[in-house]
Amino acid sequence: MPVNIIQTQYGSQIGDVEFVWARNSKEFLFANSILVKGSPSILIDPSATFTYIEQLASSRSVNVILNTHYHADHRSLNGLFKEVIFAAHEKDAPAIRDHETYEEFADTDPNSFYSEWRKQFFKQYQIHDCPVSQLYKGRELIETDTTQIQLIHIPGHTPGHMALHFKNINTVFTADIDLTPYGPWYANVVSDIDEFIASVERMKKIEADYYVSSHGERIYTPEQYREKIDRFGRHFQERDEKILELLKEGPKELAHIASEAIVYRRPSLVDPLKAYFQWQMVIKHLERLEKKGLIRKEGELYHRL
Fold first, then answer.
1. Residue 55: which of 73, 39, 38, 77 has the closest Cα?
2. Can you tell me the distance from the alpha carbon of 177 to that of 183, in angstroms, rounded to the nearest whole number?
3. Which CATH class is domain 236-304?
4. Are 114 and 106 in contact (CB under 8 A)?
5. Are 96 and 86 in contact (CB under 8 A)?
6. Which residue of 5, 11, 129, 140 pairs with 20 in a disulfide if CB–CB is 3.0 to 4.6 A?
7. Three-state DSSP state, 33
8. Structural contact between residues 269 and 249, judged by C-beta atoms closer than 8 angstroms
9. Strands 162-166 and 171-173
10. C-alpha to C-alpha distance for 256 and 154, rounded to whole angstroms
């Protein structure tokens, strides 16, 4: 029988694992956090409700901070914690330890709108480098006196992106396979569409009683999860098809393709950040379609074959 879900002041608790909902869960600036109570106590992705997480930091009750990946919205409150062990996947740890590496992972253009936005975001939320000392490969089993946490390496979103399976409550945290209608996000330099697709397919096969993602105040049943992750995974192919359909009209430049509703709807593209994200993701799709022999690039124009 599934363990009962208990509502708490800041989220929901299943067994000894509390899911702390982000204060702005529909925005990508924040992400849900998880508190694993017991010994050692583990806080995963401290980036949700500031008041509660500040209380945890002040009480010095947390022993380990585990980041599922390097993105700032999953570690914006890391800096509140002193005398803890910081942990992450070995492939993402360098970008948590060092901001210059973060920049190299994120973007190739130091003058882009995204680069300027990152500077402001890091300054506003005082996001600092963290001395990650515990490195994982994404297949380890972490044990506390209350639970066992199976790490699952799901690259694509980032190289070291990890999901978590809480064995004692049979609950899976899918991190930024976030099941939102927007679909997958892979606009960083180190993001990889093919790895992301493989990770989504892997996550479809993992059975549990409950599923939770980094964004959205929801705990999904198996039936809800299957529906959400199927829809989430279809976005990859749908984006490919939109580009191919557009190129049916004739050769197009990157700027033209990136201005169409490939990832985001046209009205959303007035936001320069979303426009930049779409540009970066469209480039990855074009490279993927070229490798598959479905399109070719001649000069500045992309042709459908």
1. 77
2. 8
3. mainly alpha
4. yes
5. yes
6. 11
7. strand
8. no
9. antiparallel
10. 32
Distance (Å, whole) CA 193 – CA 185: 9
Only one residue has tokens 């599922």, namely 68
Per residue in 144-199, pLDDT tens? Answer: 999 999 999 999 999 999 999 999 999 999 999 999 999 999 999 999 999 999 99
Query: In the chain, what are the domain boundaries?
Result: 5-233, 236-304
Fold of domain 5-233: Metallo-beta-lactamase; Chain A (3.60.15)
d(CA 64, CA 69): 15
Q: To the nearest 5 percent, what fractions of the chain are helix, strand and coil?
A: 35, 20, 45
Phi, psi of 120 (to 5 degrees): -65, -40
What DSSP string runs through 140-196? Answer: -EEE-SS-EEEEEE-TTSSTT-EEEEEGGGTEEE-TT----TT-----STT--HHHH
| Contact (Cβ atoms closer than 8 angstroms) between residue 75 and residue 83 | no
| First-residue to last-residue Cα distance in the chain | 54
Residues composing the chain? 305
CB 59 within 8 A of CB 38: no
How far is Cα 156 from Cα 245, in angstroms, rounded to an integer? Answer: 25
H or E element, residue 211? strand 210-212
Rounded distance, CA 50 to CA 64, Å? 18
Is residue 217 very low, low, confident or very high in pLDDT (cuts 50, 70, 90)?
Answer: confident
pTM over 0.90: yes
